[in-house]
Automatic annotation (TrEMBL):
Gene3D superfamilies: 3.30.70.260, 6-phosphogluconate dehydrogenase C-terminal like domain (1.10.3660.10), NAD(P)-binding Rossmann-like Domain (3.40.50.720). The keyword Oxidoreductase applies. Its EC number is 1.3.1.12. This is Prephenate dehydrogenase. Residues 296-362 form the ACT domain. It comes from Leucobacter ruminantium. It is an enzyme of class 1 (oxidoreductase). Keywords: Amino-acid biosynthesis, Aromatic amino acid biosynthesis, NAD, Oxidoreductase, Tyrosine biosynthesis. Belongs to the prephenate/arogenate dehydrogenase family. It catalyses: prephenate + NAD(+) = 3-(4-hydroxyphenyl)pyruvate + CO2 + NADH. InterPro entries: 6-PGluconate_DH-like_C_sf, ACT-like_dom_sf, ACT_dom, NAD(P)-bd_dom_sf, PDH_C, PDH_N, Preph/Arog_dehydrog, Prephen_DH. Residues 10-292 form the Prephenate/arogenate dehydrogenase domain. Pathway: Amino-acid biosynthesis; L-tyrosine biosynthesis; (4-hydroxyphenyl)pyruvate from prephenate (NAD(+) route): step 1/1.
Amino acid sequence: MNELQARTRGSVHIIGAGLLGASIGLGLREHGIDVTLEDLSPTTVALAADYGAGRVRAAGDPSPALVIVATPPDVTADVVERALLSYPEAVVTDVASVKLAPFLELTRRGVDLTNYVGSHPMAGRERGGAIMARADLFVGRPWVVCRDRETPAEALALVEAVALDLGAVLLEMTPDEHDRSVGLVSHLPQVVSSLLAARLLPAPEQAIGLAGAGLRDTTRIASSDPELWVQILGANREPVVEMLDALAADIAAFTDALRDPAQPGAKRRIADLLAAGNSGVSRIPGKHGSSERFAVITVIVDDRPGQIARLLTELGELGINMEDLRLEHSPGAQIGFAEIAVLPEVAERAVADLTERGWRTL
């Protein structure tokens, strides 16, 4: 896509050249947009520039149309305030994962927020830094925009244009709605995943060797940066504490029932809590935001180069639309497992066709 096709107009200045900032820069540069970069670390900004996320901002550069603040949450308000003062004609947005705390702090300071629009792309990776940046990081991911009644239409349009150019799906929320929502779907899972993974530390190697997809799924995000999460959780502590208290009550009820499953009603309490999990997971949107559930076919794949590519090619030749794919290696064996999600009505045919072509399925 070239600059004429881009929705974003004018140059963009990004403050903070880590994962999100560099990924935004990479995506906008693919559209031919002039992107300048700034970071407290000369090495970080030089690395992001070397990867093609933009160019280091020079003293004589004209004022940007949009400034994107992609700094850690504990300095977001400071950097936004400085950006509004340094570039009074520009629209300023930030992509911090907490929206209410910076807004309240800027309001407390009496900062004119006419040209400020808080936003947050629901995208990221377990590891940060410009070296992990990707131009397609935001494709198909929600991008929340937090406007208020004083937000000019042109300021809102510019922030939305960036999100759309990067392939994101726009959503509008108040800062409070945003923080409670991410507390549930992002911050609470991070805490649960980290605490669960921490229980692996005293476990014997023999037990760890039995780990399968269930453990990997529930601990995947536990490798996230603790320093960053201390900032995020501290800034959004009220809704997260409320949710942790509710979860603790559920765990206590489950534990009490499991401690003596022979007591009257214990098995029902256990079953009800597990069934509530079934109902909850069914609400998580699937492909294209739908709640449609898929059948899963597990294909055994030899651990040799080109096997996954061959499997995907043959699925296409058979006319089987793959809704999702998950790969798992078998510890100590030269095989892996490809879990392929398909529509239930094609699952039986898919198994038969793949078996006919020599694939082993479970």
